[in-house]
From TrEMBL:
This is Uncharacterized protein. The lineage of its organism: Bacteria, Pseudomonadati, Pseudomonadota, Alphaproteobacteria, Rhodobacterales.
Length: 48
């Protein structure tokens, strides 16, 4: 499989860190109706 032969562990780690960073940025910047307790894109816990 040429795809897995060209991927390195560094690339996988950077991709995971970028995903976490984008999620955190969305939680900070988007309104609660999109990324919040009742959000349709990112749900952040229970609605109380």
């Amino acid at each position: 499989m040429p795809l897995f032969e060209t991927m390195t562990a560094d690339q996988v780690i950077i991709a995971l860190l970028a995903t976490v960073a984008l999620r955190e940025a969305m939680l900070l910047l988007l309104p609660d109706s999109i990324a919040g307790p009742r959000g349709w894109l990112v749900r952040t816990g229970s609605e109380r």
